[in-house]
Design a protein that fits this description.
It contains 4 helices and 22 strands. It is mainly beta.
Length: 308
């Protein structure tokens, strides 16, 4: 049997490849290994008249100048070349003291653009209030504005920028990912997309390398016991061994319809019965047609095929 799909207009249909194989490391995360968000309030200087006109920016600049021995009144300063910004960054799980991480800068005042600006040294704190990094450097933005006498054009946002390697780590936050239970060491793997079938296949793949070491806790968690003969220095190799095998990833049957773009995405596991759908000028018909394949001579004797 076969199905015929008749469409009165063209629809883009994308089919996901189901049952594909992926490395375990690409579909799981090790519990305890994660980044930590950092943030701080800073000041960008060197703007060409596109900065803040608020009292907040002048007050922050006054405080910075006071630290340098200059005592001024905020009213004595004019805005336009400075901007108050929120600086954010992600402290990686294995970032060491002195290493550099990227920083994002976003205007929080009425600045029109951060183009050409330089961020003054800004302490970046974690949610616990401690300073983990210090950000500074030239701000790179991905937008621009061009204008003439009667028109102007703007591309992307100009009040958000990035400083590659613009934050220096001052305090480490080393990840802890080994659990100690009843005298044994364990590592927990968390699936990015929970699925019992995929979790079971991961457990079986690990069991082929280290027997009696992997247990499926639930659809999104596999707990792996570290063999006693593996030393502390050998844990990296152990993690590499259990995360490099390929496993078949189970994909659920889904249909995603994007009305805005007119796109229909159909998973390979989706089954369609005989149906007719009509919506405006769109008509979708799915029919079931019976066909029989009858071998011909010299591969078989002549005969007829009947439906039973």
């Amino acid at each position: 049997m076969k199905f015929r799909l008749i469409l009165s207009l063209t629809i883009l249909i994308s089919v996901f490849e189901a049952g594909r194989c992926e490395r375990i490391k690409d579909i799981v995360e090790i519990q305890g290994i994660r980044s930590n968000p950092l943030r701080g309030i800073g000041l960008v200087i060197g703007l060409s008249g596109t900065g803040d006109s608020t009292a907040l920016s002048r007050q922050i600049l006054t405080n910075i100048l006071r630290d340098s021995g200059l005592v001024l009144d905020p009213k004595d300063l004019t805005g336009g070349n400075i901007a108050v910004v929120m600086v954010t960054a992600e402290l990686g799980p294995f970032a060491r003291e002195g290493s550099q991480i990227d920083a994002d800068v976003s205007a929080i005042g009425d600045a029109k653009s951060l183009q050409g600006g330089i961020l003054l040294p800004t302490p970046l704190k974690g949610l616990d209030g401690q300073v983990y990094a210090v950000g500074q450097g030239g701000v790179s933005i991905g937008g621009w504005t061009a204008s003439g006498e009667n028109a102007s054009i703007t591309k992307n946002h100009q009040t958000v920028g990035r400083i590659p390697g613009g934050a220096i780590v001052e305090q480490e936050e080393i990840a802890t990912f080994i659990e100690y239970i009843a005298g044994h060491r364990f590592i927990t793997l968390n699936l990015r997309n929970s699925d019992f079938s995929t979790a079971q296949r991961i457990s079986e793949a690990i069991e082929k390398i280290y027997e009696d070491s992997a247990v499926v806790v639930d659809a999104g968690t596999i707990k792996v016991k570290i063999p006693g003969e593996i030393s502390r220095e050998g844990i990296s190799g152990f993690i590499d061994n259990i995360t490099t095998p390929d496993v078949k990833v189970d994909v659920p049957a889904v249909v995603v319809i994007n009305e805005r773009t007119g796109t229909i995405v159909v998973g390979e596991n989706v089954g369609i019965s005989a149906v007719a759908i009509s919506q405006g000028s769109l008509v979708v018909k799915i029919k079931e047609t019976e066909t029989v394949s009858q071998p011909v001579a010299p591969f078989s004797d002549a005969g007829t095929t009947e439906r039973v």
